[in-house]
Amino acid sequence: MSISRLGTANMYDRTISNISKQQAELASQMEHASAGKRVLRASDDPVAAAQAERARTRLTRMETDQRMLDAQTATIKYGESTLGEINAAVQEFRSLLVQAGNGTYNQTQRDTLVEQLTSLRDQILKYSNRTDSNGLPLFRGLDTESSMPFPNGGQGIQSGQPNSSEYTITNSLDGALAFFSGKTGNGVLAVEIGAGNTGAAWADAGTIRDPATATALTTPIDITFQAGANGMEYSTDGGTTWASYKSGDAISVAGMDLVITGEPKAGDTFTVKPSESMSIFDTLSQAIATVKNSGNSDGTTDHGALAHGLAKSLAEIDTQLNRVSTVRGVAGDLLNQAERMGNTLLARNEQVEAQRVAAEDYDAEGMVKALSQLKTQETAVSAALQSYASIQKLSLFNYIN
The Flagellin N-terminal domain covers which part of the protein (predicted)? Predict the structure, then answer.
């Protein structure tokens, strides 16, 4: 039979070790309770810690997506407002162009309008070359041959960039569509006045009645005038047949009804040909040239050339305005997309945050339980310290005394 002997030192070490463990447990419970988290370290719950880490990774990625979306939205908003300024400037340009056709104006007065028209064209050019906060063109015109993206003859233009992920929109608008997709004339056929015309007649942009015939036209058709027995006559087939001309009556040519107004003279011509692509800058420049060069050498106004040029320019400006409005509509749709994406990101963020909370945070019931355990542990540690202090006072000398 063996007798084990426990010395005072051994009892002291065991007591200190137990108290230290209880204090460590108390510190851990206090740390968890103060943080409001059930899992602070992977050792607390490896599975929950992994779930929480994956949730935090997704939250970080969504925060990055939201910042990118906010930046792209700001750029598109700036582009949309710029298109609004362009639209307003073109509308003002158009109003001045109508004013230039006032029959009471002389060339001196029209020259004043030319200055205003030129200023508006320069403004529109500056608007089209605006850049975002990163110095990139809003409409992505990339011309390496000049300091400004536009005009560049349509070369080096990128359209709006496509969406690159689920939560991004394009960071630019289609400058090619906005500024370089216009058409001469009515968009299908264009009417040019003869350079040597001496009469005072002009044509409108024409109305397409037979699209198949109009789009099939490849060779220009001349409308020629001559003096007939009963007045002015016109021919649309090179002089083979002639018909009586009456100002304001529609002339059918190449599937289009064309109205020529005024008093042409023998030898005057109008040419109908397929429409060609034209930038908004060329359209505005040609309109300015029409107003600027509408005077004859004797100081009088060439009313036929002026009226024809203005009618042509107004029709082409209307086409250009439609293109600008189309791109502005695209910008509005992009902003709507961005809003929907933002709402989706917010919902996803709330969902993932709930998953993270469920994995590592205390719920209401768990928090109450944790605080209760903390209070119990505090009482246990306090009792252990007080008991040990009392036991330490017990000795033979205390007993003798």
Answer: 8-142
Give residues with Cβ within 8 angstroms of 91, minimum separation 6.
321
**Domain residue ranges in the chain:** 37-184+278-361, 187-275
Nearest to 234 by CA among 253, 210, 207: 253
State the pTM of this model. Answer: 0.75
What are the distances in angstroms from CA 171 to CA 145, 232, 285, 326?
24, 59, 30, 17
End-to-end CA gap in the chain: 37
pLDDT digits (tens, 9 = 90+) for 100-138: 988 888 888 898 999 999 999 999 999 998 988 888 888
Query: In the Cβ-directed half-sphere of 327, how many Cα atoms lie within 13 Å?
Result: 32
pLDDT at 144: 44
Structure tokens given for 23: 């204090």
* H helices present in 101-151, as ranges: 107-128
Residue numbers of the chain with a pLDDT score lower than 50 = 144-145
Q: What's phi and psi for 278, nearest 5 deg?
A: -150, 135
Output the CA–CA distances (angstroms, integers) from residue 359 to 14, 38, 60, 86, in the order listed.
37, 8, 17, 54
Overall fold of domain 37-184+278-361: f41 fragment of flagellin, N-terminal domain (1.20.1330)
For residue 336, CA distances in Å to 77, 85, 343 come to: 11, 21, 11
